[in-house]
């Protein structure tokens, strides 16, 4: 009778350990499935294009935040001739840690051929 109990206790202990290892494996798999920076950039560009109908030309800013990712994406809003007169826009794009777009907004518009009027360094 004692051997049967020990066997059952041992079996129950092994099942609990297997269950803990399975949970750890699932958590590690989830963490490993998180997209890397290049995948996040691709996803952001694709999702923004799908929502706005405008293709991203470049990403001018890219930062990982506590909430996920923050990007500034340059898009062609209005094509003109000559090309230097085309109207461009910068969009601030926010994504969650998995690379899913959570919000975006246009932060400025400018002609492609114009130098940026904003000054950096507080000058």
Structure report:
The mean pLDDT is 82. Strands 1-2-3-4 form a 4-stranded antiparallel sheet. It is of the alpha+beta class and 123 residues long. The protein has helices at residues 2-32, 37-52, and strands at residues 56-64, 69-78, 87-95, 101-111. The chain is built from 2 helices and 4 strands. Strand 3 and strand 4 (101-111) form a beta hairpin. It is 38% helix and 32% strand. It is rod-shaped, with a radius of gyration of 25 Å. This is Gas vesicle protein. Residues 1-39 are annotated as: Disordered. Pfam families: GvpO. Residues 1-27 have a biased composition (Basic and acidic residues). It comes from Streptomyces hirsutus.
Q: Assess the beta-strand content as a share of residues.
A: 25-35%
Roughly what is the average pLDDT, rounded to an integer?
A: 82
- Radius of gyration, in Å, reads 25 Å
SSE topology string: HHEEEE
Content-based structural category: alpha+beta
Counted beta strands: 4
Q: What is the strand arrangement across the widest sheet?
A: 1-2-3-4
What level of helicity do the residues show? 25-40%
Main beta sheet strand tally, sense and closure: 4 strands, antiparallel
Unreliably modeled segments: none
Span between termini: 85 Å
Instruction: Please state the overall shape, judged from the principal axes of the Cα atoms.
Output: rod-shaped
The DSSP helix count reads 2
């Amino acid at each position: 009778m004692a051997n049967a109990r020990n066997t059952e206790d041992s079996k129950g202990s092994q099942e609990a350990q297997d269950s803990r290892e399975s949970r750890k494996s699932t958590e590690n798999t989830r963490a490993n499935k998180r997209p890397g920076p290049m995948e996040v950039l691709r996803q952001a560009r694709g999702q923004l294009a799908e929502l706005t109908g405008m293709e991203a030309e470049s990403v001018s800013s890219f930062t990982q935040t506590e909430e996920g990712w923050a990007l500034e994406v340059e898009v062609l809003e209005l094509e003109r001739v000559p090309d230097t007169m085309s109207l461009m826009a910068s969009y601030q794009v926010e994504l969650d840690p998995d690379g899913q777009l959570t919000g975006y907004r246009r932060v400025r518009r400018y002609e492609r051929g114009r130098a940026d009027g904003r000054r950096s360094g507080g000058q």
